[in-house]
Amino acid sequence: MIKHWWKILAVVILVYVIIVGMTKPLSSGILEVSPAAVAAGQRMTFNINTYNTVFEKGGTVKAFIKIDSLHLIPAQNVTVLSDNAIKAAFNIPEYLPNDKKSWSYPLILSDAQNGSFVRPSVISISQKEVNPSLGKQNWSYSSDIKLFQNDEMRFPFRALIYETIRNTYFHVPLWFGMVFIFLASAIYSVLFLQSANPLHDLNALSFTRVGVLYGILGCITGAIWAKYTWGTWWTFSEIKLNVSAIAMLIYLAYFVLRSSFEDEERQARVSAVYNIFAFVAMVPLLFVIPRMVDGSLHPGNGGNPGFGGDDLDNYMRMVFYPAIIGWTLLGFWIATLVYRMEKLRYQSLDEDY
Amino acid sequence: MGLANEIFFLIRKELLLEWRQKYAISGILLYVVSTVFIVYFASQNIQNQAWNSLFWIVVLFASVNAITKSFVQENSNRQLYYYSLVNPLAVILSKIVYNTLLLLVLSLLSYAAFSLFVGNPIRHAGQFYLALFLGSAGFSITFTFISAVASKANNNATLMAILGFPLIIPILLTLLKLSANALGLIQDSAIDTDITILIAIDFILLGMSILLFPYLWRD
To answer: What is the C-alpha separation between B37 and A34, in angstroms, rounded?
Structure first.
């Protein structure tokens, strides 16, 4: 039992990841605001549809249009229509304290039940003429505002992604796990070349099999996500999809190479050499090339595959990092099972001779 | 005999073999000319974007064809004789250097043939020649090593393609970007980084070839 602690750990972590990752709610968010545009100097009532909110539980709801960090326009009157819909009336001043003729500003909602939430660039305000100094002079709203906080564990609300943000705990860790599994496979190949012990080669083979399985699972989870957010299962204009497909080709070629030998010793040696070479060649493919190409649809700036900053908040990290460990350990476990199977096959072949 | 000396002699041997048989260079010349001819007939009016892709595809396939024979043109007994005579590292390094020269000639020939039949839209010649050189080196390192791997297996020619093409993609993508810049298709401010990346990939693969070849040649 004590020998198998890491398998238990894998199961515990994955159960935690699935339960927490799938059941914790998303933060409140703003789905829709209409009308989307208003002229400066007008009084306008906006219909705001929200997600995961409970306005009917009571309490005042505050709403602000954020011009900049010092200038916020508060709503004069907020009416709750239902749990997920409110009306907010704003008096937009004649002059804004900036020189933007027409610009989209963020809307902030805040109440005791749901906490505070923002939708960036959602209300467009156009000014007939710009006069920043007059705008600053005549600004009558206080910049000293108190926003409510909600400390419940909730995952971030992102437009377009919505609930599929939970796929972060499956799609991304599967790719991480794949890299670790291929690394383990390459290490077994190095051990084989040093020791010429055929069991190391069987290990390398087993890990490569599981690595390819993880790659395929990563592709499938990614395709489902892409269908939901980008509207297509697969797109060849996206560099990361291409490089992951190529990585799969590299390792599928490994199996073809293995099957082209009759001599076992030679098969093990040559495929170990190819496996190490392939792993090293895959590193620039997966980690350098996507950074070189601009305009990736994946999160991160300019095609940078790094995951961080605004893409992950602290609550997501509490699930995401364990998920990487959990999926990797599960992959290792599957690989040891495949290895035992391969070992039995190898030994039974030995007896036949 | 030092390693450098051995490499020098082996390259001389390769050149001498080539000079006597004139198989590779005449084969390559005809291959390139006929492929470029086909490219020309298949699509008469070629835009710069297509020029870039077609050029590198022609060079890629010609390279694979030129290098596949590296480890199979001489019979295995004679190779065993080489391995017992010189350091096996000298064998692979000499083949890499020789193949780089061969591919450089090949890509310059392709460039000449493209200029003749299709047109020459290159704007920054220096950058393009650099891409040709780094490309030849990268193709040569990868394909020479893969041909050493494939020569140990039964189905040599097929394996060469399925093992080599996925591995060459990082180099090929960087080359396409470099030469797109040389063609004036894109304005890349970070072209130095791309060149560094290409050189780094070439060196990493060269290092791996040197490290792994000692395990490969023994039978």
So the answer is: 61
In a domain, A40, yes or no: yes
**Domain boundary residue, one of A98, A121, A137:** A137
CB contact under 8 A, A292 and B173: yes
Strand partners, A107: A65, A119
Is residue A214 in a domain? Answer: yes
Provide the residue range defining the domain that includes A329.
Answer: 162-352
A96 within some domain: yes
Contact check, Cβ <8 Å, B149/A270: yes
ipTM attached to this prediction: 0.88
Give yes or no: residues A347 and A235 share one domain: yes
Flag if A280 and B166 touch (Cβ within 8 Å).
no
- Rounded distance, CA A152 to CA A112, Å? 12
The string of DSSP letters for B119-173 reads ----S-HHHHHHHHHHHHHHHHHHHHHHHHHHHTSS-HHHHHHHHHHHHHHHHHH
Give A114-145 pLDDT, tens digit per residue.
888 888 888 999 988 888 888 888 888 877 77
Rg (CA), chain A: 28
Nearest to B212 among A247, A277, A289 (CB): A277
Is-contact A188 A198, C-beta < 8 A?
no
Closest Cβ opposite residue B166 in set A249, A270, A292: A249
List Cβ neighbours of A15 (8 Å cut-off, separation of 6 or more): none
Tens of pLDDT along A150-179?
778 888 888 788 888 899 899 999 999 999
Phi (first) and psi of residue B217, to 5 degrees = -75, -30
Which CATH number is A82's domain given? 2.60.40.10
Q: Is A270–B153 a contact, with Cβ atoms under 8 angstroms apart? A: yes
Closest CB from A261, A276, A283 relative to B212: A276
DSSP per-residue codes, A149-178: ---S--BPP-TTTGGGGGGGGTHHHHHHHH
DSSP A279: H
Would you call B136 an interface residue with chain A, using a CB distance cutoff of 8 Å?
no
Q: What is the pLDDT of residue B4?
A: 87
Q: Convert the pLDDT of each residue in A278-312 to its tens digit.
A: 999 888 888 888 877 766 677 754 444 444 455 67
